[in-house]
Each structure stands twice: as C-alpha cells, then as structure tokens.
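Review form for a predicted model. The reviewer records the input and the model, then writes brief findings.
Reviewer: anonymous (R2)
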Amino acid sequence: MKLKRGIAALGLMVTLTAGAWAQGTLNLSLREAQDYAVEHNYAMQNASLDVKKAEAAKWETITTMFPQVSASFDYQNMCGYEMVMHMGPTEIGIPLNPNGTFGVTASVALTAQQIMGSVIGKISEEMSDITRRQTEQNTRANVKSVYVSILVMEDVVKLLDSSLANLESIEETTQSAVDAGASEQISADKVSVQVASLKSTINSNKRSLQMLYNSLLLQLGADVNTKISLTTPLDDILNVDEAAQLTMGGFDMERNYDYQTLVQSEKLAKNQVTLAWLDFTPTLSAYYQYSYKTYFGKDEGMNMTPPNVIGASVKLPIWKSGTRAASIKKAKIALQQMENTKKQAEDGLQVQYKQLCYDLVTALETYNIQKKNLDVTMRVMKNTSEKFKYGHASNLDITTASTDIITAQSNYIQAVMSVLSAQVSLENLMGEAEED
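Model under review:
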C-alpha cells in the first residue's frame, strides 16, 4: 500500500510539473485531485502528525526501560578548616583541603507496567493510524463530492445557455412580429420576462459554481488563487452500474474504520485490566557508579569514597489499602462496557449497511428518471420553440416549457447529489473510498 501511494504521489508530481503548472492551471482528474488533497490537505497533515506523535509517545515509554546514564562533578572548600584528632596527649591536625569529585552513574529499572505500557503505546499508535486512514477516506470523499458538484453545475449551465439561446431567438422573432403589427406587445413582454428569469438562474448557478471551485481549493489545500481544470467526465465518475455493484458485494465489517477503532479500543481495555494486575509485580533495579575524588591542596586528604560501586534491588509491593483491587475492578467494568459498545456497534453497522443499500438503489432509480426527464424537457423546449416561430404554440406554452426546464435541472442536480451522497456514505461504511 505504501509503495502504491509513493508511486501515485511521484506520478502526480511529474504530471503537475510537466503539464499543469507550465500552463498556469492545475489540470486534475478525480484521482489526481484526491491524491493532491491527501498530500496537501491540512487535516491530513495533522492526522499524519498524530501518528508520528503516537509513535514518539510509544518510544518514550520504551526508552524508560533502557539504562539511564548521568555524570556529575562536586566541589567542596572548607575555607581552611582543619579537623583535629586527639590521640592521648597528642593532637593530630588533618587539613580539609578543597576537593572535587567526578562521578558517573548508570542505572536501569524494569517493571511489568513498563512492558505493558509499551504494548499500550503500540495500540495507541495503531489507533492513530486508523484515524489517519479514516481522515484520508473522508478527504477523498469530500473531494469527490465537490468535484462531481462542479461537473454537474457546469453541465447544467451549458444546458441552460442552450435554452437561453432558443428563448432569445424567440424573443427577437416575437419583437419583430410586434414591430410588424402581427402580434401584441404583451406577447413579447412575456417572452422577455422568461429570458430575464432564465438569465438570473444561469447567473445564480455560475456564482454557485465559483463557490464550489473555492471549496475544492480548500479541500485540496492549494493556493486560493490557483486555477483548476477538471479532466474527468461526469459519466466516468457517476457510473450507475458500478454504483449498483456496491449493494451486491456484501459487507465486510473488518474494513470499516469505526469498527477497527472499536477493536483497538477493546484491546486497550483488556490491556488496562492486565496493567492493573501488574501493580502486584516487583520492581527490579540495578546501578553502577564510578567516582574519582581529588584534592587541590598540598596534602592529600582522607579519601573514603570508593571508585566503583555496584548495586541491585528488588521492590515488592505488599499493601496499598485496597487501591489495587479497586483499580482492577474499575478496569474490568470499563472492559465490559467496551465489549457491550462493540456488540451494539456490530448490530448498528449491519442495519446501517442495509439502509444505505436501500438509499442508493432509490437514489439510482430517481437519478435515471430525472436524467430522462431533463432530456425530455430540453426536447420539449426545442419543439415548442419551433412551433412558436410558426404560430403553433402560445406564450403560455413557452412559459411552461421554460419553467419546466428550470424545475427539471433543479431535480436533476438533486438526484445526482443524492446518488453521490448515498454512494459515498456506502463506500465509507465499507472502507471502499480509498480504492476509488
């Protein structure tokens, strides 16, 4: 998987360098847009940093089991004080000259809790990686959603532009008939209102289209002034047959990231129980100390500091007033709660899978109907326009046909987004989005 990602990232860099940036525009297929977002999206960068942070925390625990080495230097000056020893009638003065001691200490302490802590750290790292992959899945899904929305909106604008051209032609013909006295001004005014209404709808869609491009830039993590050109056709993305296949492949719960997180959480809860029991285990420690003491006066003082010292100890906990028993009981209860949560999630995911399959099938049926309806509405508008030119259709027919187009395009957009929403939701549930 990492090799595939590396190759994909390299391919994306070559593509951008050789073509897109040379032209001043970011030309992106859907897959390239998703890969670009995974590489540059700030949420993805933070998710990757969380994995590194969890890995660092794991090694922080592991390194506590390694030997710890420290060095020190002590200096003492008794300010000329002399120690006097009485031996019968004789007094012996021992000067306490300034001295310095250099020491090196190496120690190691090992407990069962440290070992279990490293295991828990590994689980935390795996959970962070699951979160990272889930963030990548969501990033790809969000990019796909905006990408498709742009393509749909562009297609709709083109259709409306075509309808506008027909209406403007009718408006011109009607006005010519009015000028020639063959028709009333009210007829031209009605067509003019329809032209203005359609222009307003087109302008509104264009503004929405620009907002979608801005949203895509944010998802990609690209500069806000970057121009984007989308190269994947809508039909290649909105593959009805491929979408329908999602409802037939069955549901492998192990691929769901939320379920994977629950599995890791259950492991963590089990290890917390073990960790509570390990509070009864002993602590083993050992150390080695080297010391070198020197005097800075004329006379060498009395040196009672041994140069080498080795020690070891075993510390066994005996009684903590019931604290450990309470900790074990609490950890067991937390484990039971996690097991119940996991079982409930398993049932919930199965129900959710069935519901999302129903939603996708319904959305696909609606999409097919609305796509045909939009095509029929466009043909009706074209036929009505031709009839109107020859006086076989009324202003009311033109008004109705124009209104039907706006309604049809709105229904078509809603149908497309319903399919996309249902498909992305099902892919996310099944863990499929990363493999688009």
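Findings: The CA atoms of residues 2 and 162 lie 47 Å apart.
Further findings: The chain has a mean pLDDT of 84.
Recommendation: see findings above.
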